[in-house]
């Protein structure tokens, strides 16, 4: 990985995106999104991940995050991606309702065939390019971008209505996992 794309500041807040290989629309089913949410919660509780903003789209996940300093951000991300890759592939394989199972698994298998580090399936694209948010203006633009993603793609008409986003938290509702940028 290039030096340009590393989370160097252990106290920094970073914008990252994790995308499914070939941009496959895996997260159209709630059970797959729930796996991501539970894994993010685990990383918060056990690994010191701090989530300032998040949004699960159909084929990618946006996050603004940092750490409490106990574990490096790159290590948390590595563990998150590794765990969710296995859990999501297993969930797809075991889902008797999944009409796209063979198609999705063939794409994930093909992606692994071109990789030296994945044995059978590759779920996530390798890159996540952390971008440090060093001031309030950058944080606000990131927050707006993350929260408006489901609106821009037509999933909801108002950001606060999308359950799988921290827009609910920022609107004063009971969200799933985010803490505010605001101190």
TrEMBL record:
The Transposase IS200-like domain extends over 9-149
InterPro entries named among the record's database cross-references: RAYT_transposase, Transposase_17, Transposase_17_sf
For this protein, the record's PANTHER family field holds:
REP-ASSOCIATED TYROSINE TRANSPOSASE
- Name listed for the protein in its UniProt record: Transposase
Phylogenetic lineage: Bacteria, Pseudomonadati, Bacteroidota, Cytophagia, Cytophagales
